[in-house]
Amino acid sequence: MNAVITGASKGIGKAIAARLAKEGFNVAICSRNKATLEAAGAEIQQQNPQVQVITMPVDMGNRQQVLDFAARVNGSFPAVDILVNNAGLFVPGALHEEPEGLLENLMALNLYSAYHLTRQLLPPMIARRKGHIFNLCSTASYKAYPNGGAYGITKFALLGLSKNLREELKPHNVKVTAISPGPTWTDSWAGFEAPEDRMMPAEDIANVVWSAYTLAAQTVVEEIVLRPMLGDIG
Protein backbone atom coordinates (compact mmCIF):
# COMPACT_ATOMS: atom_id res chain seq x y z
CA MET A 1 0.00 0.00 0.00
CA ASN A 2 1.33 3.41 -0.97
CA ALA A 3 0.46 6.96 0.08
CA VAL A 4 1.57 10.42 -1.03
CA ILE A 5 1.30 13.38 1.33
CA THR A 6 2.35 16.89 0.35
CA GLY A 7 3.50 19.51 2.83
CA ALA A 8 4.39 16.72 5.22
CA SER A 9 7.48 17.91 7.09
CA LYS A 10 5.39 19.13 10.01
CA GLY A 11 1.86 19.82 11.25
CA ILE A 12 -1.13 18.08 9.70
CA GLY A 13 0.81 16.59 6.79
CA LYS A 14 3.41 15.00 9.03
CA ALA A 15 0.74 13.64 11.37
CA ILE A 16 -1.09 12.03 8.45
CA ALA A 17 2.10 10.55 7.01
CA ALA A 18 3.08 9.14 10.40
CA ARG A 19 -0.35 7.58 10.89
CA LEU A 20 -0.36 5.96 7.45
CA ALA A 21 3.16 4.63 7.90
CA LYS A 22 2.11 3.20 11.26
CA GLU A 23 -0.68 1.38 9.41
CA GLY A 24 1.83 -0.17 7.02
CA PHE A 25 1.79 2.26 4.10
CA ASN A 26 4.87 3.20 2.15
CA VAL A 27 4.84 7.00 2.08
CA ALA A 28 6.21 9.64 -0.27
CA ILE A 29 6.37 13.05 1.36
CA CYS A 30 7.54 16.47 0.27
CA SER A 31 7.97 20.02 1.51
CA ARG A 32 10.11 23.02 0.68
CA ASN A 33 12.50 22.80 3.63
CA LYS A 34 14.93 19.96 3.02
CA ALA A 35 16.22 19.79 6.60
CA THR A 36 12.83 19.55 8.29
CA LEU A 37 11.62 17.15 5.59
CA GLU A 38 14.52 14.77 6.10
CA ALA A 39 14.06 14.94 9.86
CA ALA A 40 10.38 14.10 9.48
CA GLY A 41 11.20 11.25 7.11
CA ALA A 42 13.74 9.80 9.53
CA GLU A 43 11.26 10.02 12.41
CA ILE A 44 8.53 8.29 10.41
CA GLN A 45 10.96 5.62 9.26
CA GLN A 46 12.08 4.99 12.83
CA GLN A 47 8.48 4.49 13.92
CA ASN A 48 8.02 1.75 11.31
CA PRO A 49 11.24 0.43 9.77
CA GLN A 50 9.22 -1.98 7.61
CA VAL A 51 7.84 0.68 5.28
CA GLN A 52 9.51 2.70 2.54
CA VAL A 53 9.74 6.44 3.18
CA ILE A 54 10.51 8.64 0.18
CA THR A 55 11.37 12.29 0.76
CA MET A 56 11.81 14.96 -1.89
CA PRO A 57 12.21 18.73 -1.40
CA VAL A 58 9.56 20.40 -3.54
CA ASP A 59 8.22 23.91 -3.93
CA MET A 60 4.59 22.99 -4.53
CA GLY A 61 3.96 26.43 -5.98
CA ASN A 62 6.30 25.54 -8.86
CA ARG A 63 4.50 23.49 -11.53
CA GLN A 64 7.65 21.82 -12.85
CA GLN A 65 8.73 20.73 -9.38
CA VAL A 66 5.26 19.29 -8.78
CA LEU A 67 5.54 17.33 -12.03
CA ASP A 68 9.03 16.13 -11.06
CA PHE A 69 7.69 14.91 -7.72
CA ALA A 70 4.87 13.10 -9.50
CA ALA A 71 7.39 11.42 -11.79
CA ARG A 72 9.41 10.32 -8.76
CA VAL A 73 6.28 8.84 -7.18
CA ASN A 74 5.19 7.09 -10.36
CA GLY A 75 8.66 5.66 -10.76
CA SER A 76 8.70 4.35 -7.19
CA PHE A 77 5.14 3.11 -6.67
CA PRO A 78 3.14 1.02 -9.17
CA ALA A 79 0.06 2.88 -7.94
CA VAL A 80 -1.00 5.24 -5.18
CA ASP A 81 -3.70 4.10 -2.76
CA ILE A 82 -4.00 7.40 -0.88
CA LEU A 83 -3.16 10.89 -2.11
CA VAL A 84 -3.31 13.69 0.44
CA ASN A 85 -3.09 17.16 -1.09
CA ASN A 86 -2.11 19.01 2.06
CA ALA A 87 0.50 21.58 0.94
CA GLY A 88 -0.69 25.11 1.48
CA LEU A 89 0.10 28.50 2.94
CA PHE A 90 -1.98 30.85 5.07
CA VAL A 91 -1.36 34.57 4.64
CA PRO A 92 -3.97 36.81 6.28
CA GLY A 93 -4.91 40.16 4.86
CA ALA A 94 -7.63 42.20 3.20
CA LEU A 95 -7.86 42.04 -0.59
CA HIS A 96 -7.27 45.77 -1.07
CA GLU A 97 -4.19 45.72 1.16
CA GLU A 98 -2.46 42.56 -0.03
CA PRO A 99 0.85 42.77 -1.90
CA GLU A 100 0.65 42.45 -5.66
CA GLY A 101 0.99 38.86 -6.80
CA LEU A 102 -0.15 37.24 -3.54
CA LEU A 103 -3.29 35.77 -5.08
CA GLU A 104 -1.31 34.22 -7.93
CA ASN A 105 1.26 32.78 -5.52
CA LEU A 106 -1.35 31.31 -3.20
CA MET A 107 -3.37 29.90 -6.09
CA ALA A 108 -0.25 28.14 -7.35
CA LEU A 109 0.52 26.64 -3.95
CA ASN A 110 -2.94 26.04 -2.47
CA LEU A 111 -4.83 25.01 -5.62
CA TYR A 112 -2.73 24.35 -8.71
CA SER A 113 -0.38 22.01 -6.87
CA ALA A 114 -3.30 19.71 -6.03
CA TYR A 115 -4.62 19.98 -9.57
CA HIS A 116 -1.34 19.07 -11.26
CA LEU A 117 -0.30 16.33 -8.83
CA THR A 118 -3.70 14.68 -8.89
CA ARG A 119 -3.76 14.62 -12.70
CA GLN A 120 -0.38 12.88 -12.76
CA LEU A 121 -1.24 10.23 -10.16
CA LEU A 122 -4.80 9.48 -11.26
CA PRO A 123 -4.30 7.16 -14.28
CA PRO A 124 -3.19 4.09 -12.24
CA MET A 125 -6.02 4.70 -9.76
CA ILE A 126 -8.55 4.76 -12.59
CA ALA A 127 -7.01 1.68 -14.20
CA ARG A 128 -7.20 -0.24 -10.91
CA ARG A 129 -10.59 1.25 -10.00
CA LYS A 130 -9.16 1.93 -6.58
CA GLY A 131 -7.78 4.93 -4.73
CA HIS A 132 -8.69 7.71 -2.31
CA ILE A 133 -7.89 11.39 -2.73
CA PHE A 134 -8.00 13.69 0.29
CA ASN A 135 -7.89 17.45 -0.26
CA LEU A 136 -7.09 19.51 2.83
CA CYS A 137 -9.44 22.45 2.53
CA SER A 138 -10.43 24.68 5.45
CA THR A 139 -13.41 26.08 7.30
CA ALA A 140 -12.50 29.11 5.17
CA SER A 141 -13.74 27.03 2.21
CA TYR A 142 -17.26 27.47 3.55
CA LYS A 143 -17.37 30.83 5.27
CA ALA A 144 -15.65 34.06 4.34
CA TYR A 145 -14.22 36.13 7.17
CA PRO A 146 -12.42 39.47 7.56
CA ASN A 147 -8.76 39.34 6.49
CA GLY A 148 -9.32 36.02 4.73
CA GLY A 149 -8.26 37.67 1.48
CA ALA A 150 -6.54 35.61 -1.19
CA TYR A 151 -6.22 32.62 1.13
CA GLY A 152 -9.99 32.35 1.47
CA ILE A 153 -10.38 32.49 -2.30
CA THR A 154 -7.95 29.61 -2.80
CA LYS A 155 -9.66 27.45 -0.19
CA PHE A 156 -13.08 28.01 -1.75
CA ALA A 157 -11.49 26.96 -5.03
CA LEU A 158 -9.93 23.82 -3.56
CA LEU A 159 -13.32 22.73 -2.26
CA GLY A 160 -14.68 23.31 -5.76
CA LEU A 161 -11.92 21.14 -7.19
CA SER A 162 -12.84 18.42 -4.70
CA LYS A 163 -16.51 18.55 -5.66
CA ASN A 164 -15.69 18.33 -9.37
CA LEU A 165 -13.31 15.43 -8.83
CA ARG A 166 -15.90 13.59 -6.78
CA GLU A 167 -18.42 13.74 -9.61
CA GLU A 168 -15.91 12.85 -12.33
CA LEU A 169 -14.45 9.88 -10.46
CA LYS A 170 -17.68 8.22 -9.36
CA PRO A 171 -17.78 5.88 -12.37
CA HIS A 172 -14.11 4.99 -11.83
CA ASN A 173 -14.61 3.92 -8.21
CA VAL A 174 -12.01 6.41 -6.93
CA LYS A 175 -12.99 8.17 -3.71
CA VAL A 176 -12.60 11.89 -3.06
CA THR A 177 -12.89 13.50 0.37
CA ALA A 178 -12.57 17.19 1.24
CA ILE A 179 -11.37 17.70 4.80
CA SER A 180 -11.83 21.21 6.22
CA PRO A 181 -10.20 21.75 9.61
CA GLY A 182 -10.63 24.86 11.71
CA PRO A 183 -7.85 26.13 14.02
CA THR A 184 -5.26 23.36 14.42
CA TRP A 185 -1.90 23.43 16.19
CA THR A 186 0.41 23.96 13.20
CA ASP A 187 3.05 26.48 12.17
CA SER A 188 0.32 28.52 10.48
CA TRP A 189 -0.65 29.60 14.00
CA ALA A 190 2.92 30.20 15.20
CA GLY A 191 3.04 33.03 17.70
CA PHE A 192 -0.68 32.86 18.40
CA GLU A 193 -1.41 32.53 22.08
CA ALA A 194 -4.50 30.52 22.93
CA PRO A 195 -5.57 28.03 25.59
CA GLU A 196 -4.83 24.45 24.60
CA ASP A 197 -8.52 23.60 24.32
CA ARG A 198 -9.06 26.28 21.66
CA MET A 199 -6.97 24.45 19.06
CA MET A 200 -7.25 20.96 17.62
CA PRO A 201 -4.26 18.59 17.57
CA ALA A 202 -2.97 17.65 14.12
CA GLU A 203 -3.26 13.99 15.08
CA ASP A 204 -7.05 14.35 15.10
CA ILE A 205 -6.99 15.22 11.41
CA ALA A 206 -4.81 12.18 10.75
CA ASN A 207 -7.27 9.97 12.62
CA VAL A 208 -10.13 11.34 10.53
CA VAL A 209 -8.25 10.55 7.32
CA TRP A 210 -7.69 7.00 8.47
CA SER A 211 -11.30 6.55 9.56
CA ALA A 212 -12.62 7.80 6.21
CA TYR A 213 -10.22 5.55 4.31
CA THR A 214 -11.18 2.40 6.20
CA LEU A 215 -14.90 2.58 5.46
CA ALA A 216 -16.55 -0.02 3.23
CA ALA A 217 -15.67 0.07 -0.46
CA GLN A 218 -19.17 1.27 -1.33
CA THR A 219 -19.03 4.16 1.16
CA VAL A 220 -17.36 7.54 0.72
CA VAL A 221 -17.33 10.56 3.02
CA GLU A 222 -17.52 13.50 0.65
CA GLU A 223 -16.87 16.38 3.05
CA ILE A 224 -15.67 16.65 6.64
CA VAL A 225 -15.63 19.88 8.66
CA LEU A 226 -13.80 19.98 11.99
CA ARG A 227 -13.78 22.80 14.52
CA PRO A 228 -12.57 23.22 18.10
CA MET A 229 -15.29 22.45 20.63
CA LEU A 230 -15.75 26.16 21.41
CA GLY A 231 -15.87 27.10 17.73
CA ASP A 232 -13.69 29.24 15.51
CA ILE A 233 -11.20 31.73 16.88
CA GLY A 234 -11.42 35.45 16.19
Automatic annotation (TrEMBL):
Superkingdom: Bacteria
InterPro entries per UniProt: NAD(P)-bd_dom_sf, Sc_DH/Rdtase_CS, SDR_fam
Keywords: Oxidoreductase
Gene Ontology terms: cellular component: membrane
Any Pfam family the entry gives: adh_short
One Gene Ontology term of the molecular function aspect: oxidoreductase activity
UniProt cross-references to CDD domains, sorted A to Z: SDR_c
Family designation: Belongs to the short-chain dehydrogenases/reductases (SDR) family.
PANTHER family for the chain: DEHYDROGENASE/REDUCTASE SDR FAMILY MEMBER 7B, DEHYDROGENASE_REDUCTASE SDR FAMILY MEMBER 7B
Protein name stated in the entry: SDR family oxidoreductase
Organism: Chitinophaga agrisoli
